[in-house]
Design a protein that fits this description.
Layout (H helix, E strand, L loop, with lengths): L2 H15 L28 E2 L3 E2 L2 H12 L11 H5 L3 H6 L1 E2 L15 E5 L9 E6 L2 E6 L5 E2 L15 E7 L7 E6 L3 E4 L9 E3 L2 E2 L11 E8 L7 E8 L3 E10 L4 E11 L6 E8 L1 E3 L14 E2 L3 E5 L5 E5 L7 E8 L3 E5 L20 E6 L5 E8 L10 E7 L8 E11 L10 E9 L11 E9 L12 E7 L3 E9 L6 E8 L6 E9 L2 E2 L3 E6 L5
Parallel strand pairs: 5-13, 21-35
Antiparallel strand pairs: 1-6, 2-6, 3-7, 4-8, 5-6, 8-9, 9-10, 10-11, 11-17, 12-17, 13-14, 14-15, 15-16, 16-27, 17-26, 18-19, 20-21, 20-23, 22-25, 23-24, 24-27, 25-26, 28-29, 29-32, 30-33, 31-32, 33-34, 33-35
Length: about 525
């Protein structure tokens, strides 16, 4: 299965599955459970025997596994599971009374996903209590099959597809979910799913199929302090293994503190650390590609970068005609993220998908990551169901067989960046024909219009000595100037580019007053239309 097929099915399925379940009457208890799952009036899950557990042991297990050949476990009841389509899967609902921690921790019960055509291989899920863990044993009695009759055909040891944490004991919406390969999501502070994160990315946008390692086991533990839950995970794939500790906290949005130990089973040409996945079809910058009645459709509208030297950069996203990979070389980056800055409903007019509420995801490295690059991959799409944007960190040092790597970072899910710049930020990018309205347009010229807002711009009265600083990879700048948009706090930079040929154009622009930098740096890659 290639990247397009995988994302079009697994992630589309997840978006529907995350919407919540139905309420059911309580069922009789099936077996004694750990005291941490007692909820009074709730049915009980089935648990395996206690076994010793520690993160050190999990790390050692991942390292030992990397020294052995990869073995993919066969999917159970493969033909029957393949028959569970998207629509059929929506009829299968987890019964809330079988939730793990029905009244905690932090009033966030855990429910489980059923296997289906798009997530065929089960994951083992355990509960951690001190230095011991117990596996949560699958039972078809945990699910209502909606009259499909599948409960009578499936094997009794089928297993789960993943899990999700609910907003509260009496709510059917969730704020965190793990399902499919190493993908996970949070709904942010506006309770709307969008972009995703992954445990790791292997050979994304290479001339060979991308590898999708998967989380094969999870251990869930009640976290200390303000964290909602501690999630331990074991990663396994043809080229890599890994041990993960994730402290997930439900704040205004969500914060996930990640500790990752990776072990290379084979040499890896392109290792993507802290990978983020999103969707960008069209916005105001490429409205000519618009095929739908809605003005804009995207989960994220830009890549934000905070470099190791402190520069703040905004790179608007594209839907290119062919796969584009751009690398932003850096040393010890302060952060990067796929951000949804445009949060105005009028710019989307979608009261079903609510793109204006989609969460941004920001990666904050903890400690020094050394030399490498943030890489942005943009893949052509012709529909909103395809996640076509990927961003991640690539270490400069080669990943050889047997190499061990450790990364610590924090993921922020919310409506904005957790560390916004004190500078003006890019809020819109528009492109049109060059020249002056009402006059014949010059040949081979395109006009670029960039709106900046915030920071020192908000309190600045209209003046005409603010200058755009522009750099081009080719072509020539014509008629650059800046104005303040009447009745707003926005400042707008205009410039034309005289450009010949069809090769891409890379541009940089920021606003300056004298020697003072007023804004972050706008980066853009423009693809001239094919004649």
């Amino acid at each position: 299965m290639d990247r397009r097929d995988f994302l079009a099915t697994a992630l589309a399925l997840s978006a529907g599955a995350f919407s919540g379940g139905r309420a059911f009457a309580a069922s009789p208890a099936t077996a004694p459970s750990p005291s941490s799952n007692s909820g009074g009036g709730f049915a009980d899950l089935k648990f395996g025997e206690p076994k010793p557990f520690s993160y050190d042991a999990l790390r050692a297990r991942a390292q030992a596994s990397a020294a052995k050949p990869y073995r993919s476990e066969p999917a159970p009841a493969a033909e029957l599971i393949k028959s569970i389509s998207f629509d059929l899967n929506q009829k299968i609902q987890f019964k809330p009374e079988y939730s793990l921690w029905p009244k905690g921790p932090g009033d966030f019960p855990v429910r489980f996903f059923h296997l289906n055509r798009y997530v065929e291989q089960p994951v083992r899920i355990h509960i951690v209590d001190g230095a011991a863990s117990r596996e949560i044993l699958y039972s078809s009695s945990y699910f209502d099959y909606g009259g499909t009759g599948l409960d009578e055909k499936l094997p009794p040891d089928l297993g789960f597809a993943g899990f999700r944490m609910m907003n509260g004991p009496s709510e059917d919406a969730d704020w965190l979910a793990f399902q499919g390969a190493s993908y996970f999501r949070s709904s942010g502070d506006e309770n709307q799913y969008g972009a995703s994160a992954r445990g790791i990315a292997i050979d994304t946008a290479m001339p060979r199929p991308e590898e999708f390692p998967r989380f094969t086991e999870f251990w869930l533990g009640e976290a200390q302090g303000s964290h909602a839950v501690t999630i331990y995970a074991l990663l396994d794939g043809p080229s890599i293994t890994g041990a993960y500790r994730i402290d997930a906290e439900r704040t205004k949005g969500a914060i996930m503190t990640m500790h990752v130990d990776l072990f290379a089973r084979n040499p890896i040409e392109r290792l993507g650390v802290a990978p983020l996945t999103s969707m960008f079809w069209y916005g105001e910058n490429n409205s000519s590609r618009r095929k739908d009645w809605r003005p804009e459709i995207h989960d994220s509208d830009g890549l934000a970068l905070w470099t190791g030297k402190g520069e703040r950069i905004w790179r608007p996203l594209n839907d290119p005609a062919q796969v584009q990979t751009n690398s932003f070389v850096d040393t010890n980056p302060k952060g990067f993220g796929l951000i949804q800055r445009d949060r105005d409903f009028d710019n989307y007019q979608d009261d079903g998908a609510f793109y204006n509420r989609r969460p941004s995801i920001w990666v904050e490295p903890l400690g020094e990551w050394g030399e490498g690059a943030v890489q942005l991959v943009e893949i052509p799409t012709d529909d909103e169901i395809h996640d076509n944007i990927v961003a991640y960190w690539i270490p400069r040092a080669p990943v050889t067989r047997g190499k061990a790597l450790t990364f610590d970072y924090r993921l922020y899910w919310g409506s904005g960046e957790p560390h916004p710049p004190s500078l003006g930020r890019v809020v819109a990018t528009r492109i049109g024909r060059g020249g002056v309205p009402g006059q014949p347009p010059p040949k081979d010229q395109r006009k670029f219009v960039i709106d900046f807002q915030g920071g020192p711009l908000d309190d600045m009265a209209q003046r005409f000595d603010v200058k755009p600083v522009i750099n081009l990879s080719r072509g020539r700048v014509e008629n650059p100037y800046v104005i303040k948009v009447v009745g707003t706090s926005r400042w707008r930079a205009f410039f034309d580019v005289e450009l010949k040929g069809g090769d891409p154009l890379d541009m940089r622009c920021y606003l300056r007053l004298g020697k003072r930098t007023l804004t972050e740096t706008w980066l853009y890659q423009y693809f001239p239309p094919v004649a």
